[in-house]
Design brief:
Keywords: Membrane, Transmembrane, Transmembrane helix. The chain is of the alpha/beta class. About 30% of the residues lie in helices and about 15% in strands. The strands form 5 sheets. Strands 5-6-1-7-16-2-17 form a 7-stranded mixed beta sheet, sandwiched between helices. Strand 3 and strand 4 form a beta hairpin. Helix 1 packs across helix 2 and helix 7 runs parallel beside helix 9. It is globular and about 75 Å long. It starts with a helix and ends in a 5-residue tail after the last helix. Bound molecules: 2-acetamido-2-deoxy-beta-D-glucopyranose (3 copies) and zinc ion. The site of one 2-acetamido-2-deoxy-beta-D-glucopyranose (NAG) has 2 residues, from loops.
């Protein structure tokens, strides 16, 4: 009906107006058909701009900005981040990372929904206690990478995933073999805009081939944060560049008519805190209580990880170290506390893996542990601390059809994101540490 009145009124109306002195019934008919025509056009407009979909399936783009401390979005004008905030759902006081607040453990928790002991990446660097093999950030053997990352879950559900960098994405697991067309091997030299443009090119494929799940990763502003700490113009500039690169992504999606259909999730992995010369603890200051050979220490700071040889009782090491730290004779001794891993606070979820050395030291915010005095300049930034510190928080924004506009939600741990993504994609999730009810509390129902 609408279509008929629209097509008949269009040529008829101007002619009627200019040359005929029409009777009132005819005038009413013309007005009525004009109204119906306008209503039809309006309906057409709204259906093409928001409710009609070009893509035959839900799509999630998960974007990570490394070391994007919560609050950085206010350091510089960030029109694109703010567009996502106003048009989407934001964690009002930031996203809580897992402990330790380091890059690899956190990125892998985001995509598996698991705490580090369960996904296996307990640090950026660690040893297999049985074989003695070393894990580094370049290790791609699947034996290290436990759990089921989103790209694997997506593939197991017969959907397509694409990764433009993410820790663990190059690892072949289950149905995921890091396919050439949709999985980029990590190369930090690739300009950010090339990464965005490649992701945008996926939306030029026939619509049924557009990947359901896409990751995108940027090293900034973590890189600058380590050099100068969180409060420096280098950070402000890096935040502006991240905002601009998000703008490029948004514009590209808009040009393809899919911005309002795609779910864009913008996160970071952890925050950043300033460190400086006076905030140091030297392990050799503990020599009067206990000698700690360097080969016992697997990681110094901000998470101290010690594995003494089997002949040495870890409980004895912990007792001696804390005795020294509490003595008042060790510089900044009160800023380091050493634990048997099973005695760490439960909320840290950091004991249930053989890969975690038996002795873990926690340092206060902004402090660092070093083997010995070097006199080197130590001012810069660090992360890896207790995830209860606000400085370790990062950002979470969700934008797209399932995220309410302008909604603020309380802070939550990043292990919830896995279920959020599987809910949006409407696929079967693997067991994980996120709560099954979380997606219902955050997402709008699917239409
Ligand atoms: C995926 O496809 C395979 C092979 O066609 C089929 O056996 C399996 O049931 C499918 N899985 C799902 C979750 O649809
Ligand atoms: C990494 O990316 C840069 C910039 O695109 C390129 O020139 C270089 O060849 C790449 N390196 C490898 C190993 O692919
Ligand atoms: C986390 O998930 C793993 C795998 O399902 C499970 O074994 C573990 O008990 C869970 N831990 C917590 C604290 O929920
Ligand atoms: Zn990081």
């Amino acid at each position: 009906m609408g279509e008929e009145s629209w097509s008949s009124s269009k040529p008829f109306l101007p002619h009627q107006r200019s040359s005929n002195s029409c009777s009132s019934w005819r005038f009413i008919l013309v007005i009525a058909s004009m109204f119906l025509g306008a209503a039809f056009l309006l309906a057409l407009y709204f259906s093409s701009s928001s409710s009609a979909t070009l893509l035959p399936h839900p799509v999630v783009i998960l974007v990570s900005s490394d070391g994007f401390r919560f609050g950085y979005q206010h350091k510089a004008p960030t029109p694109n981040i703010h567009r996502l905030i106003h048009g989407g759902t934001e964690a009002l006081t930031g996203l809580i990372p897992v402990f330790p607040t380091l890059t690899f453990p956190n990125h892998y928790s985001i995509v598996t929904g698991l705490y580090p002991p369960h996904h296996g990446i307990i640090n950026n660097f660690f040893y297999d206690p049985i074989t003695g093999d070393k894990f580094t950030m370049a290790s791609h053997h699947p034996k290290w990478w436990l759990g089921h990352p989103l790209w694997e879950t997506v593939a197991a559900n017969n959907l397509t995933a694409a990764t433009y960098f993410w820790p663990g994405s190059e690892v072949h697991k289950g149905p995921w073999a890091c396919p050439k067309a949709f999985c980029q091997p990590y190369n930090s030299s690739v300009p950010f805009q090339d990464r965005v443009d490649t992701v945008l090119s996926y939306f030029d494929l026939p619509t049924d081939q557009v990947p359901s799940f896409i990751t995108l990763y940027f090293e900034d502003p973590d890189h600058q944060g380590h050099l100068v700490g969180p409060d420096d113009s280098l950070i402000t500039d890096a935040v502006s560049r991240i905002d601009a690169i998000l703008g490029r992504l948004i514009l590209g999606l808009e040009q393809r008519g899919v911005f309002h259909e795609v779910h864009l999730i913008f996160v970071g992995d952890h925050g950043m805190v300033g460190t400086c010369d006076k905030k140091l603890i030297f392990l050799d200051d503990l020599a009067p209580w206990l000698d700690i050979p360097e080969d016992w220490v697997h990681y110094y700071t901000p998470i101290l990880a010690i594995r003494p040889p089997p002949s040495v009782d870890p409980a004895h090491v912990v007792a001696k170290m804390n005795q020294g730290l509490d003595s008042g004779k060790v510089e900044n001794g009160g800023k380091l506390r050493v634990f048997l891993k099973q005695d760490l606070p439960e909320r840290l979820h950091y004991s249930d893996s053989d890969r975690i050395p038996p002795i873990i030291g926690l340092v206060d915010e902004g402090y660092k542990v070093e083997p010995t005095r070097t006199g080197n300049n130590e001012c810069g930034g660090a992360h890896g601390y207790d995830n209860a510190f606000f400085s370790m928080r990062t950002i979470f924004i969700g934008h797209g059809p399932r995220f309410a506009k302008g909604r603020k939600i309380p802070s939550f741990e990043n292990v919830q994101i896995y279920n959020l993504v599987t809910s949006i994609l409407n696929i079967q999730a693997a067991p994980n540490n996120g709560s099954a009810s979380f997606p219902d509390s955050v997402l709008l129902p699917s239409s």
